[in-house]
Amino acid sequence: MLTKSDFLRVVASTPLVSIDLLVTDTQGRVLLGRRRNRPAQGSWFVPGGRIRKDEGLDAAFRRIVADELGLTGVERGDAAPRGVFEHHYPDNFAAEPGISTHYVVLAYAWTMPGAAPLGQPDQHSEYCWMTPAELLAHAEVHENTRAYFR
């Protein structure tokens, strides 16, 4: 595990690779969480997370679904790849001035069957469901999330 200062050097020096989950319900609404942490703090964003060193994509997908949604048994093969995106943020997790954050994001779309219970993740203070039209028009939905639905 990296120390905070070591991880800040990584953020300052290289892109991070992550998976974002474009989760919809059976009515076509999209799951969003209000971000607790930087970057994008305070905005509505799709669930997701970084891929760890030496972690395969399938394992990362399962872990991120469990961490963000509190669900087990969801496999990457259950989701449809939606492309590779880049997210650039002027700030960083530590709020250190002059250090931006760059993510390369693998986006996966998945429809959640039924009314599955959602866990309470560390990254989001609350969840909500919005239609794609609602999230595109909502000022507090982060631009990087809106880009998935254009």
From TrEMBL:
GO molecular function, a single term: GDP-mannose mannosyl hydrolase activity
Cofactor(s) demanded: Mg(2+)
Site (Critical for catalysis): H124
Sequence ranges assigned to domain Nudix hydrolase in this UniProt record: 12-150
Keyword annotations: Hydrolase, Magnesium, Metal-binding
EC number: 3.6.1.-
Matching InterPro entries: GDPMH, NUDIX_hydrolase-like_dom_sf, NUDIX_hydrolase_dom
One Pfam family linked to the record: NUDIX
Record: residues binding Mg(2+): G48, E68, Q123
Enzyme class: hydrolase
Domain of life: Bacteria
Details of cofactor binding: Binds 1 Mg(2+) ion per subunit.
Motif segment (Nudix box): 49-70
UniProt protein name: GDP-mannose mannosyl hydrolase
